[in-house]
Every structure is written in structure tokens, then in C-alpha cells.
Amino acid sequence: MELMVLGLVVFLGTHSLRLWGGAVRTGLITRLGEKGFKGLYAVLSLAGFAAVVVGFGLAREVPVLLWTPPAALRHPAFLLMALSLILLAAAYVPNNGIRARLHHPMVLSVKVWALAHLLVNGTLAHVVLFGSFLVWSVLLFSASRRRDREQDVVYLPGNAKATALTVVLGLLGCVVFVAWLHGILIGVRLVA
Description:
The protein is an all-alpha fold. It is 78% helix and 0% strand. It has 2 domains: 1-62; 65-192, no CATH class.
């Protein structure tokens, strides 16, 4: 569990520079240059992510059960995951209306993903992992929207074709992940 927590601190801390470390970020860019900063950011992010993955795997070997989630929550979790993957697609498909309306769909995707997983997992490792990501995404979304207001950021309206493509790609990603990738990557098959 300690390795996972360390990984979360490094990974989420690195990804929180805009939340708490604007001056730190600026200082590092000045000292290291843009490429040096990006290199350090990438190394810390990957090291943190690796520690989270390995630490979570170790914590799953000796689970500490906090509660047993009701089986009925699996259906809302699937729906939330479909929404999460649509939001993830919205972060990448240009000119879609979802991004135009919500402004930060990647952060919202993480928030919905974390909530979906908290609904259906009751071990301490799951609560720490997904709870950390949920709290981080709530704080980051709020800070990002505040920064947008302060900087008068204007998001161009999306178009229907790009928005429809975003929804289709998100739903397709959900089907692929639920049917195959979750079992391959995470080791937990969601459908028999």
C-alpha cells in the first residue's frame, strides 16, 4: 500500500502543478528550459504511474475489505464508464460540442471514472486509489474553470458532426474496454 500511496503523491503531485505550484512550474521552466521541464515532468509522471500500478497490484494481493458493494451498483457503474469514455474522446476530437460546453472533458472523465470504480469496489486499496483520483479531479476541474474565467478563455462552439463522432468513439471504446481490454490490462473480466 505504501508504494501505491507514494506513486499517487508523485503522479498526482506532478499533475497538480497548476493547482498549487504555478511559481514552482515557472521556476523549473526558467531553470531547466521548456524541454528540460517536460523531460522531468515525463520522468516523474511515469515513475509515479509505475509505482501506482505495482503498489496497487501488491495491495490487491492482500485486500482489506471495507464494505461489500451491492451488485445493483454495477449497472450505474457501466453507464458512468460509458460517459467517462465519451468525455475522454471529447478531449481529443476537434471541434466537438462536449468540449465546447464543458471545457475540460479529460478532467471530468477522470472524475466520472473514479466515481464509477468507487461504486463497485470496497477494498481499502480501491478506496485510496480511486478516492485520490476523485478528489484530485474535483480540485483540478475547479481550478481550471477558475483559471479560464480569470484569463477570459473563450471556447469555440462545436459542431454536430464532431460531437456525434465523439459519442460514437466513446461508446466504441467502452465496448472494447468492457469486453476485452479491462480483463487483459487489469486482470478483471467484466463480462463472461
